[in-house]
Amino acid sequence: MNLSLRRKANTHTSVHYKKTPGQIVLLVLMYLSLIIAALIVIIPIYIIVVCSFKTNAEISGSNPLLFPSVLRWGNYFGHTINEDTGAIIPSAWEYLSFKSSNPSSMGKAFLVTLGISGISIILTVISGTLVAYVLSRFEFKGKKLLKVLFLVASIIPSITMQVSIFGLISKMGLYNTPMALILLYAGTDIISIYIFLQFLDNIPKALDEAALVDGCNYFSIYLRIILPLMKPAIATVCIIKGIAFYNDFYLPSLYLKDYYTISTFLNTMNGATSTEWGVVCAGVVMAIIPTIVVFCFLQNQIYSGLTSGAVKS
Amino acid sequence: MDAAEKKVNNKKIKFNGNNHMKLEKILLIIVFLSVPLTLLILFTYVPLFDMIKYSLYHYKGFLDKSPTLVAFGASSLYADNFVTIFTNSEYWEPFKVSLVYLVGSFIQIALALYFATIFYFRPKGQKFFKAVIFIPSLLNGVAISLMWLMIFKSGQEGGILNTLISNSGGETIAFFGTFLSANVVLAFVSVWRYLGNNMVMFAGTMESVSRDEIEASEIDGANKWQQFRFILLPSIKKVVFLNLILAVNGAVQVFEIPYIMQPNNYYTQTFIMKTLNIAFTTQMDVGLASALGIVMLLIVCFVALIQKVIEAKVED
Hints:
- The structure holds 2 protein chains of 2 kinds.
- By secondary structure, chain A is mostly helical.
- Helix content of chain A is about 65%, strand content about 0%.
- Chain A folds into 2 domains: about 15-90, no CATH class; about 105-310, MetI-like (MetI-like fold, Orthogonal Bundle), CATH 1.10.3720.10.
- Chain A has helices at about 1-10, 20-50, 55-60, 105-135, 145-155, 160-170, 180-185, 190-200, 205-215, 220-230, 230-245, 250-255, 260-270, 275-310, and strands at about 80, 90.
- Chain A has a two-stranded antiparallel sheet with strand order 1-2.
- In chain A, α4 (about 105-135) packs parallel to α7 (about 180-185) and α9 (about 205-215) crosses α10.
- Chain B has a domain at about 90-285: MetI-like fold, CATH 1.10.3720.10.
- A two-stranded antiparallel sheet of chain B has the order 1-2.
- Classes of the chains: A mainly alpha, B mainly alpha.
- The interface between A and B is large, with 109 and 111 residues.
């Protein structure tokens, strides 16, 4: 097919060296589409940053693309006073600190999110590498059944079973505990097992066998040979899961009542009777800053992690 | 011990010459698998069977989110919940909503292919453009939803777009006022969010195409479309197909964006929102919610089955 295509199109050979008008139009269209796409991403984010420094009146009364003359940092930290009613408007950071029953702040929400994500990632990596090691290196009765169990579980989306999972978590007495999230994150994750398995299949078995001859036992092979070699795959899983756990809203909104993660903390600002939208915007900005910082540092790892996670899923 | 295992072990046994390695191996398999397997069964298979069981009964409960299940007339098996779902058009509304998201996903995949192809040819500033288009897929979903809510809100609520429209003397638009416009807006937000994810996957897979091949085709006079159609697209056929299939599942499972932006809008109720409403807020009907969950699950499994069948056929 390629050959015939080449012969057919062989008439203008100078193409490579000199751009035809058609190619120039194509080039212009290409850059135009890139610029439009970039603007569609950047403009809304820019508007939110601008609004985060405004009062409600300024948001609805002024050009959304222009910063106000006085930047209202009170939307971010501390609090501001409503000039008409004299009521205290808490900032995004302190949003729930005036809540009577269970005061919270965005800082606390960051800590809760980081804690839950961190523990969940560690458990995911440990259990994923253990399963992958056993499945890739040993033959035993029931291995096929086990693989089928994991395969079926990877097809079933746990989001569809949330009603019965909720019942289970309640019966276990884990409702409204961070443990519920940790167990669900680490216990229903199949993708990382596949990432580890795929990676392990490319590590030659001769390595383990050599270590066996040298007198290593199976556990020390896992600890001293397999784990260090799997570092790239572990990094991939940490990145993919880290982003997913940090951003998750579904599980914390369902299982946590008194603990706020970043997602549920932000959502408490939504739908309040007198929403101060400048404060909401400040919250949005603070929630996405860490992600953008992490992205700047780990750009290439994130790209390749996503690609390797995509091929096997 | 089966033959395969013997084969694998023969070498090791020869080297070590002792049987305690075999015992150690069995012990290690049991220890290593015990916790992950327990979690797998506990959080996937137990809820699956629970859900099937609940769906067959008239179960009402989780009142005030307490752990007790109160059963009304749970003395015999019923298909009632399924009959309710299939005879009430109310429960079919989410299908229409899912269709809008599905169309959005197809547009998203087409755009992702387009941009991935552009990036393959390394345009100037590609690193910047790629990063910008990709970044939304990393951002917190609640933050994204609140951001777009702010922009698309009605005029009285001070929505940014409507403020701009009325400032320039136009008529404000109720973006969430009709079924189509509400869901198109939400699907747009979803495309905005996930486009970069698809794009990076496609671009990453395209990188496996050697640049020599593209250069050769260029010398032979192939244009960009021919290069895409005959060289780049075949290289990522599998990933594109997988993403098209996953788009169906994604469309059935939409939750976060409509739930945060329009939780109480009649037009924007998705399957998951409906299920949660039935189970926890409006009806407290665990049986009905479970039945709806099973309908969702069947759709997902059916799609997965089609995927496997087509993949097997292609490989033949």
